[in-house]
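Homework help board

Subject: predicted structure for assignment chain

Our instructor gave us this sequence and asked us to write out the predicted structure in token form, then describe one feature. I got the tokens but I'm not sure how to describe them. Can anyone check?
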Amino acid sequence: MRADFFDTNIVLYLLDDSPKGDIAAGLLASGGVISVQVLNEALVNCIRKAGMSWQEAGDFLMGVRGLCKVIDLSARIHDVGLAVGERYGFSVYDAMIVAAALTSGCEQLYTEDLQHGQLIEGRLRIVNPFRQ
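My token output:
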């Protein structure tokens, strides 16, 4: 089974009418994993930056939830995030995204925010799908 995790920026590109939007749509159409953190970060951006109403943002994110498995945040994710954040020098939010991907057994984390090709803990590959 394919085990890919999608960072918030990949989800938000679904709102973009550009080549990046097309790439994001193709990736998400195949399914994958996101966390509640991704939903919350996307909600903030939908309302504040995209000017969506709460209802519009909720409808958009419900569509994303239909494509992806959503994992809850947990104390375990927090603990793993603390460890990987310190070990790799990630920001708090990036560390928690990486931790969610690791604890979910994902093999790839799609994001444009981290170092393309980096291997985390010997089992999670960072992939920037927009890299030329």
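Reply (TA_rk): Your tokens look well-formed. For the description, you could write something like this. The longest strand covers residues 32-35. That's the kind of observation they're looking for.
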